[in-house]
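Lab notebook: predicted structure, single chain.

Context: the supervisor wants predicted structures on file for every construct in the current expression panel, including those that have not yet been purified. This is the next one on the list. No modifications to the sequence; it matches the entry in the shared construct table.
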Amino acid sequence: MSSGVPRWPATIALLAVGVLLAIAATQLDVSSLQLPLVIIGILAVPLTLASIYGRHDIRHRLGMIALAILTAAVALSAIYLVRQLLFGVIEAPSLLSGSAAIWAANLGTFALWYWEIDGGGPAERRRDGHKSTDFLFPQMQVGDGTATGWWPGFLDYMFVAFNASSAFSPTDTLILSPRAKILMMVQSLISLVTVVVIAARAINTLK
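Prediction complete. Output recorded below exactly as produced.
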């Protein structure tokens, strides 16, 4: 038996990532980011309707498509950052603000990934007797790992994503599945690129 799953934190995060990528596109003059943002805007309508009418299967599939597009957009932004650092003429304030926006967008994107994939999605995780398959939180490490009244919320996945972006490790949460490990490696790599760009630009400014 599953209980209702609050969707609004993930919806807000999705909108926030779109806004952050729009900021990055403006600051870095990356016109190629416009198409992914338009597609995400179009997908937001059926995603909202599927959530309202309880079609979690459709919402889950559409969410995965949206996340794949967002991830490609964030990765493209990180590649463009490196290009701008090496060959670009964008002024330091724009480069730094664009880098910060990409870092935050990367954080939000992968928090959504973890929220969507873990244990088959948020609806499946709420089923009685559900066992963790992708992430093992400290609260689940009591007994046999079966959920008995506690389920990770979106904030828990945001915390995991924040640690991966800042400390480059999951800290207190165990990463169990290969797909979760791959996603975390990609997230850490993108975050590392943005941090290196920010640090390199700051050092050049001080010279």
